[in-house]
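User: Just a sanity check before I run the rest of the batch. Below are the structure tokens for the first item. I only need the designed sequence back.
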């Protein structure tokens, strides 16, 4: 009888030990499992045949990619290039932008240590000054697969639908942009767009086979950008509160 009780006790202790060990292993495996990648934004290409990659990865469970970048998404405020005889602004537009940048207020010690960049889309027609109309115009714009480059400086200025700025590490007083000189022979292509269920954010993927990034100071000097691809996110509700205030 005592022998049976002893055997039962040993069996129960063995079961308890194995159960605890199994739970500990399960917890360890869960803690060591790879985080799930939720979003991956990037600018990638070659500058004068030298590869570069600027990226921000966003994971679940507040896991960090340990890079100091933030996604800077939004757009310009409403711009109106003309005025009617009655003094009413007209020919109104906005430009949506998105960057992978470093906020000085968050990572002051990282400023100047990393390449950063921004891309711009538009002009988006906002003549009706209504958010629903702007959102419709933005969606219509993004359906245009081929985008011409715009030129904001020099002569002649050129209307266009796309621009790209590159801010190299180690330089605080200059940067490179497609907007500083002529890129009329090149195109940017939108390859995919994805809109979230709340109609607030739109992911944009695209490619540029070739274009020129001109120096801010020497605008006849440029770096050749090739094999460029990007995935970024814009805030399609950027002007919503501006309309609300009106």
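Assistant: Here's the designed sequence for the first item:
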């Amino acid at each position: 009888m005592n022998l049976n009780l002893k055997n039962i006790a040993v069996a129960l202790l063995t079961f308890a030990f194995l159960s605890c060990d199994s739970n500990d292993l399960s917890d360890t495996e869960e803690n060591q499992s790879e985080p799930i990648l939720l979003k991956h934004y990037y600018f990638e290409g070659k500058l004068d045949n030298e590869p570069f990659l600027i990226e921000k990865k966003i994971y679940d469970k507040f896991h960090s990619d340990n890079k100091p970048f933030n996604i800077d998404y939004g757009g310009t405020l409403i711009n109106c290039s003309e005025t009617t005889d009655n003094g009413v602004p007209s020919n109104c537009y906005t430009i949506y932008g998105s960057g992978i940048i470093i906020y000085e207020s968050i990572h002051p010690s990282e400023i100047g240590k990393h390449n950063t960049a921004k891309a711009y889309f538009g002009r988006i027609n906002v003549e009706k000054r209504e958010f629903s109309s702007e959102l419709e115009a933005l969606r219509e714009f993004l359906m245009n697969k081929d985008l011409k480059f715009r030129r904001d400086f020099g002569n002649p200025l050129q209307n266009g639908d796309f621009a790209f700025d590159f801010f190299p590490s180690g330089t605080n007083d200059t940067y490179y942009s497609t907007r500083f000189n002529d890129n009329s022979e090149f195109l940017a292509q939108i390859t995919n767009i994805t809109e979230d269920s709340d109609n607030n954010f739109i992911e944009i993927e695209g490619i540029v086979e070739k274009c020129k990034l001109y120096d801010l100071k020497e605008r006849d000097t440029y770096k050749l950008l090739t094999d460029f691809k990007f995935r970024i996110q814009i805030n399609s509700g950027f002007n919503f509160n501006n309309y609300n205030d009106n």
